Amino acid sequence: MNAFAKLKTITPTVNQIVRTYALKSDLKIKWVRPEKIPCYKPEKSGDLQALPKFAGTELMKDYRDSKELETANEHVRNLFTIQHNRRREMVENFKEDMVRRVYRHELDYGSIEAKLGLMTARIRSLQEYMEKFPRQSVVKVQLKELIDKRKRFLRYLRRWDYRRFEYMLEKLDLVYKPYPTHFHWITRKDSLRKLTTQHCEQIKETRLEEYRRQLESQQLEFLENKLKTLEFIRKEQTECQVPVTVSSEEIKTVRKQYEELKQKRAAAAESLKESEDS
C-alpha cells in the first residue's frame, strides 16, 4: 500500500487537525481601505477656494496706470490684457489681490501676513496646474515645500498671536490642519480590531435597549402586584398584632406611582390612536 492510500484511509479520523483560527469571521464587518489623498490636494492643504476665474479683460499689473492705454486703440489695448498674455500675468494679479486682503499698508510685502498671502496665491496656482498635469514631479515637489512652509508660518502665528492667526484664516479662506501628534500606519488588522469593538458595543447597546423596553412594559404590572402585596402584608401584621413593617406612606407612594404610570400609558395610547386615524 502506498503513502497516498494510507493518507486516504486516515483522513476521516483526523478532523480535529483542521485549522479554524484563520477562517473568515461571521460578523457583518467589512473594511475598505481609505482612499489615499495626496498632500498637495486642497483637501489636505486646507485651501477652501480655488484660483478665481478672471474675465480676461483686465490689464496687466505693470500697465494699469498707463495713460497712453486709456486713449489707445481697442486692438492695441487688448495686447496688454491678461487673456492675450501668459498665465503668469493672471497669477500676478491674484497674488496682488491676496496681499491686499491682509497687508498692513500699501507698500507691505515683507510682513508675515503678506508672505502668507503670496504663498497662498502661489499654492492655488500650482494646485490648478497639477490638476491639468499631474505627472509634473518638479512642480509637485515645489508645491509640497510651499504647503509645508505656509504651515510652519501658521503654526508660528497660532503659538504667538492667535487673534492674528484666526484673522489670516478668515481672510485667506484657509483651514489649519496641524501635523498629527502620533503617526501610525493604516493597517487592516488594526482597523478590523476597532470595527469589531464598535460592533460589539453596538450589540451591547441594542440588547440593553431591548431589555429596558421589556422592563418598562412590565413596570405597570409590577407596581400593581407590589401595591397588593404591601397592602396584604400590612393587613396581616395588624390582624396578628405584630410590629408593622409596612407604613402607610410607602403604600401611598407606590399607589401614586401606579396611577401616574397608568395615566401616562393611557395618554400615550390615545395619541398613538389619533395619529393612526389621521
What is the helical fraction, as a range of percent?
55-70%
Mean pLDDT: 85
| Total DSSP E strands | 0
Between the first and last Cα atoms, what is the distance in angstroms? 83 Å
Tally of structural domains: 2
| Percentage of residues in DSSP E strands | under 5%
Overall 3D form = elongated
Radius of gyration: 38 Å
Q: Stretches where pLDDT falls below 50 for ≥5 residues?
A: 10-14
Q: In sequence order, what are the helices and strands, one letter per element? A: HHHHHHHHHHH
For the biggest sheet, the summary is: none
The total of helices stands at 11
Structural category is: mainly alpha
Structure description:
Belongs to the universal ribosomal protein uS15 family. This is Small ribosomal subunit protein uS15m. Keywords: Coiled coil, Mitochondrion, Ribonucleoprotein, Ribosomal protein, Transit peptide. The protein is an all-alpha fold and 278 residues long. The chain has two domains: 37-172, no CATH class; 215-277. It contains eleven helices and no strands. The protein has helices spanning 3-10, 42-45, 67-70, 74-78, 87-102, 112-132, 137-160, 162-172, 188-217, 219-239, 248-277. It is elongated, with a radius of gyration of 38 Å. Residues 10-14 have low confidence and may be disordered.
